[in-house]
Design goal:
Gal_mutarotase_sf_dom; carbohydrate binding; Beta-galactosidase, Chain A, domain 5; eleven-stranded antiparallel beta sheet; Glycosyltransferase; 769 residues; hydrolase activity, hydrolyzing O-glycosyl compounds; GH65_N; five-stranded antiparallel beta sheet
């Protein structure tokens, strides 16, 4: 755990330069706008430890999997969002000496992520080996208002000398992915050009054939006055730059304003890319840096209006929750239903930028409440469009008749995980995809989605489950063999309670949805039946039979659901009795030892209880929580939030807060020692859930929102924004009570501590404590 980020309500601040923290900071200070993003790499050269990262959403490469013994059903490749052309570079040479913080004495250094207005600012005072001192201030952002563009204002001032300074703004496409399986470079150059004030490169990804044009234009100012020095064009393989030299005077600044754009063949015809790129660059340079920055602040203000959480009395908690919300917004804006949310967003290479069950299980609640309805709908449509591939995936594994198995890891719907023994049997992901449909409809009331898209997905998933179970003559029940639950520290187990529970829930929900569509729109239903070739009697008959006769492991003595058959045969040593030196077990123990142990990586039984809490009484929830939490090592970032919400439900406010802290500052404090690989974006939605569903006790049932809030001891109040069926609510929980403001023309009835309250349009009310 680190503690070097300074507390501030709206900013993430690093003061002083410690090269050991550089890769961590590159992740934390990342920028993005849903369409593209980048790690906080320096503009000038840096020869120290760094992970270069620039990413264009949806542009990926199928990297052939490395494996010793190939087995049927093994994914051919691991798809990864590629490290793309680096557009931030501005090389600086002072009297023949390259400015490089790894080789300078850094006299002062400050990096600041301004979350309110959406930009990164860095300033430093450095002394080169020969004693030349310079001051640098760099501001940059990926534009939210114009999401194919970004800009940098880089100002350098010689402090103790006058002399020649050479600056080289560049676009460098000669980049690699650190996680490349065969050390391959993934891009081929298509074309490039340079002009006096800019340049571009067009590159094509190998195999997938995405073409991306990345270009720059720049202005130069000396002491604040625009100048036009002669530039020298430099063109190398996948690299363009324009170099210029100035006689700099002591105390007088030199500024490069660099405008950049990234356009991809996903959105333009390939032959139009260069023209469109030039038009974009001309448009933003005409607009100017300050206007772009104003637009950026306005776009962020609009986001914050719908999703800010204010915590009074705890700056560190305030900073943390905003950081989580900020990163989620940088990662996914919901504008494009071909895009999704990688577990690391645009902050690193890990998890390849691919889509996981994280989206449906963790991110959907955040976007449902804080973004327009179409944003979550787009996340659901992404899976709808991939239904054909999910059916193919299932066929490859031997399933038939339209059974669909969604991938655990994917870009385009094809399964592409690269951890055979763990991920292969995590078929529970299918359940989360169905649950997200239920969650969306429950939240929005948009039942037409079911007939238009949802039912087809549900049926494919239910068909899969109905074929995946088998009848046990011995038990006279259905069983589900050979699975891996959300707890990845158990592989190939029989009858994982969570998987079996979500499977039967899916089958029942599918039948219920079919009945609803049939009753409300018989014509549509008939068309669907024929489209999906449904034999209602036989198929639904089987679903119902499985729902009735499914086997779920249970321990009568302790009265808890059993994670899987045989779980209690394991040596039951609680996590508190594990020496700290043995943790995290995934770094300290062999996989063999982990698999034999009782330790749980993340919520598994408790994940099911979280999803279906209405089905269990409070004593059942408590018994299971008290049994499983002490065995949980929380070695997935997705774990603490579910525990925070359940602890809050059980009235254990202190534990709820403890779990919240662990998720909220996970990256800012580098809690798991892995932030340098990138930030844990999908679990950031879990942090939001901990506040809103945990401390706020928010739930949706029977078309209404309900709240059961409490205030963590350290806070004096907290408030959050919720959009619900047209109403825009701000809920503030303080010692006085619960204040609800409705900033919309739609009135709504909510439940606060179980009592109905009508919140009129553009009105507010206080439910006293
Ligand atoms: C978790 C999975 C998750 C993946 C990506 C793993 O560590 O165990 O549940 O889908 O990370 O976030």
């Amino acid at each position: 755990m680190k503690n070097y980020i300074k507390a501030d309500e709206w900013k993430i601040i690093e003061e002083g330069f410690d090269a050991h923290y550089n890769k961590i900071s590159e992740s934390i200070f990342s920028l993005g706008n849903g369409r593209m993003g980048q790690r906080a790499n320096f503009e000038e050269a840096y020869s120290g430890d760094t992970l270069l990262g620039n990413y264009v959403a949806g542009v990926y490469y199928p990297d052939k999997t490395r494996v010793g013994w190939w087995k049927n059903g093994y994914p051919e490749y691991f798809a990864k969002v590629l490290n793309a052309a680096n557009w931030v570079g501005i090389d600086v040479v002072i009297d023949g000496e390259q400015l490089d913080l790894a080789k300078c004495e850094v006299l002062s250094f400050r990096r600041e992520l301004n979350m309110k207005d959406g930009y990164l600012k860095r300033d430093f005072h450095a002394k080169t080996a020969s004693g030349k001192e310079v001051k640098v201030e760099a501001i940059r952002f990926c534009s939210m208002a114009d999401d194919e563009t970004g800009a940098i204002k880089y100002t350098l001032t010689p402090l103790n000398f006058s002399g020649a300074i050479t600056l080289t703004p560049s676009i460098d496409g000669d980049v690699v992915n650190k996680d490349s399986n065969y050390d391959e470079k993934f891009w081929d150059e298509v074309s490039k050009a340079t002009q006096a004030d800019g340049g571009y490169i067009v590159m094509r990804t190998k195999k997938t054939g995405f073409v991306v044009a990345t270009g720059m234009k720049f202005n130069i100012l000396q002491n604040g006055v625009a100048i036009e020095p002669t530039t020298e064009a430099i063109e190398k393989e996948k690299y363009v730059a324009a170099k210029f030299s100035l006689e700099a005077k002591q105390g007088e600044s030199i500024t490069v304003i660099k405008y950049a754009a990234n356009l991809s063949s996903q959105n333009y015809k390939q032959e139009e890319l260069v023209d469109q790129l030039n038009a974009t660059l001309n448009r933003i340079i005409a607009k100017g840096f300050d206007t772009m920055l104003d637009e950026q602040a306005a776009a962020w203000a609009e986001k914050w209006k719908h999703n800010d959480i204010i915590i009074d009395g705890d700056v560190s908690a305030q900073q943390a929750i905003r950081f989580n919300i900020y990163q989620l917004n940088q990662t996914y804006t919901g504008e494009d239903d071909r895009l999704n949310i990688g577990p690391k967003g645009f902050t690193g290479e890990k998890y390849g930028g691919s889509t996981y069950w994280d989206t449906e299980a963790y991110c959907v609640p955040f976007y449902l409440s804080t973004a327009p309805q179409k944003v979550t709908r787009n996340l659901l449509l992404y899976r709808y469009k991939q239904l054909g591939k999910a059916i193919e995936n299932a066929q490859l594994l031997g399933f038939k008749n339209g059974a669909a198995l969604y991938p655990m890891v994917t870009m385009d719907g094809t399964e592409c995980h690269n951890e055979w023994e763990i991920t292969f049997e995590e078929i529970h992901r299918n359940g989360a995809i169905a649950f997200a449909i239920y969650n969306y409809v429950r939240y929005t009331g948009d039942e037409t989605y079911l007939g238009d898209y949802g039912f087809e997905v549900l049926l494919g998933i239910a068909r899969f489950w109905s074929q995946r179970v088998n009848w046990s003559d011995d038990r006279q029940q259905y069983v589900m063999l050979g699975v891996t639950g959300p707890n990845e520290y158990e592989n190939n187990v029989n009858n994982n309670w969570y998987t079996s529970t979500i499977a039967t829930w899916c089958m029942q929900y599918t039948v219920d949805v079919a009945e609803k569509i049939k009753a409300t729109d018989p014509e549509k239903y008939a068309a669907l039946v024929s489209k999906v070739n449904l034999d209602e009697e036989t198929e639904f008959g089987r679903f119902r039979d499985i729902v009735q006769k499914m086997y779920y492991p249970y321990d009568e003595k302790r009265q808890v659901f059993l994670q899987q058959d045989g779980y209690l045969d394991k040596e039951q040593i609680l996590v508190k009795d594990l020496p700290a030196s043995e943790r995290p077990i995934n770094q300290k123990w062999s996989w063999d030892r982990i698999l034999r142990s009782c330790y749980i990586k993340q919520a598994d039984v408790l994940q099911g209880i979280y999803f279906f809490e209405d089905q269990y009484d409070i004593d059942t929830i408590r018994r299971n929580f008290d049994f499983y939490e002490p065995r949980t090592v929380h070695e997935s970032s997705l774990s603490p939030c579910v525990h925070a919400i359940l602890a809050a439900k059980l009235g254990d406010e202190a534990r709820a807060y403890e779990f919240y802290l662990r998720t909220a500052r996970l990256d800012l404090d580098d809690y798991n020692n892995d932030t340098e690989d990138g930030c844990h974006i999908t679990s950031m939605a879990g942090t939001w859930m901990s506040v809103v569903e945990g401390f706020g006790g928010m739930r949706v049932s029977n078309d209404k929102l309900s709240f059961q809030p409490f205030i963590p001891e350290k806070w004096s109040s907290f408030s959050f924004h919720i959009g619900f069926r047209g109403a825009l609510l701000n809920i503030k929980v303080s010692k006085e009570g619960v204040q609800i403001k409705n900033a919309s023309d739609v009135e709504t009835t909510v439940l606060v501590y179980g009592k109905e309250q009508l919140v009129k349009a553009n009105d507010e009310l206080l439910v006293e404590a």
